[in-house]
Write the structure tokens for this entry.
Amino acid sequence: MKLKTILILCFLLFLVGLSAQQPITVSGTVTEGATGDPAIGVTVLVKGTTNGTVTGIGGDYTLSNVPANATLMFSYIGMLTVEESVNGRSVINISMLEDVQALDEVVVIGYGTARKRDLTGSIVSVSAGEIADRPSANPLASLQGKVAGVQIVNTGRAGQDPEIRIRGTNSINGYKPLYIVDGLFSDNISHINPSDVESMEILKDPSSLAIFGVRGANGVIIISTKKAKAGQTIVNLNTSFGFKEIYDRIDLTNAAQFKELYDEQRNNQGAQPYNYSYWGADTDWQDEMFQSGFITNNNISITGSGDRSRFYMGLGYTSEEGSIQTEKFSKITVNLSSEYNVTDFLKFGFQVNGAKNKTPDAKGVGSIVRAAPIAPTF
């Protein structure tokens, strides 16, 4: 009798576990928490899988093959993602709230600042944290691949500014955008240390460029540099280094192949065979010209703030060896700013940005492509 009872209990537990594993169909409605209106286009996904759907025009959804113990994820741009456990339910209604932090983020525009929720133009904001993991000699190089529609091409030469196109090539007179650094117009930002950049705003469409007129025809990049923050005294030191190498080299002939081709040419021209007595070298001129370049960035910043005064100083040193031997670029930058609040409506301050560059001589590589491999290096 006791054995029969145990078997029945085990069988019932097995049935319960089996039913819990059976997939079910879940449906429901997703609404906006602030207005109660249907949320259209919300992604409904079974967590950890690719099984999902999208809410319709009435905010309704139906999702099949959902495990009874699964978790559903509801996500939409500008809304906080919601995770809801199914727990065997077949009807799940969700109310989603706005992601206030993302919508209230302040963006610098041509005539001041605005919240992202109030912007209708094409403006992209890049914070210091997004470019901190890409140390470079020029702030523009750190934007490569981060902004849609912005083309940035690094030539690889030590210290050379990258080419940037925000709105394509709109004129035969050039494609360089307009730079605005802390409210001042500039044609070049190579003197700015990327570690001193607080944020960068890229203005791309005509409505956001209207205030700048013709000068903003190729786009505008607004840069805000770091300044001291109230109640903070911070000393920050960081350094990074790396190497660069040319891997995709031109496939050139070696000495034996060169002699074979040159002899064939002279034979076709009816000339006598060439005497290679003094040309017995086998030189790879690309090995002789190129090198593994060493790059290092070193920065130190000091910020201090009191009840009425703020102070920021940033120093940077960048050294970059080119891919061509003897090419070396070095730069020392300084960013100094200070503010003093006399009253609540009156303050004095100054800001200085400067740089000292040692640029390398530009060298071409066309000569090594045409050089004969049978010629010795010296």
Summary: The mean pLDDT is 80.
